[in-house]
Fold:
Amino acid sequence: MTRRASTPLSISAQRLIEELRRAGIADERVLAAMGRVPRDQFVPAAFLDHAWDNVALPIGQGQTISQPLVVALMTVALEVTDRHKVLEIGTGSGYQTAVLAPLCRRVFTIERHQALHQESNKRFAALRLGNVTTRYGDGTKGWPEPAPFDRILLTAAAAKLPATLPDMLAPGGVLVAPVGEEKGQQMLVRLRRTETGFETEELGAVRFVPLVEGLPRNPRRQGEAAST
Structure:
């Protein structure tokens, strides 16, 4: 992002960051990134009064912008550095993408809802996020062309993790995803690729919208409806 590191945080951002610290988030790089991403630019106008609250909010198309605490937990779990190439499945509003951008080398992000894809692209352009590459498509298939990835993050819950995604991890790579049925128990899982296979670690219970295979049937009409 183009903001200088010395730019003071808004009072709302400061309040949110202190709340995240009290909740146990100690990674200062993640906290700094979240403090400087203008969350109010990623929520619909009807919810601007709650943009900096530690809550999930609807963004249309049956999707949500995640609770900041969950974004922080997932970002910390990803163990991302400025050398890493990251694949994000489910761009949504683009908020999680914008948090990742200053922390890694490049983010590749996929969104299956055309309207959300277009809106997030506008936000990335406005914030001058030059290391973000986007795609409108089916995230369950991953992104073969730039693979392998050092890190993969899913922002929707998979009833069963698509086999294509772990296969796109580089050796030593990490995948973080909510796993579980939409109306059942969901668990945040960290998958680490080793020389002999994969190691899995459960990080705690979460609640996400489901990961859906394929594209909506009528993306043109969907995009027109969302833009009115």
Summary: Residues 4 and 36 are 10 Å apart (CA to CA). The beta strands are 57-60, 63-65, 85-89, 106-111, 132-136, 149-154, 169-180, 186-193, 198-206. Helices lie at 11-22, 28-36, 68-78, 95-100, 114-126, 164-167, 219-226.
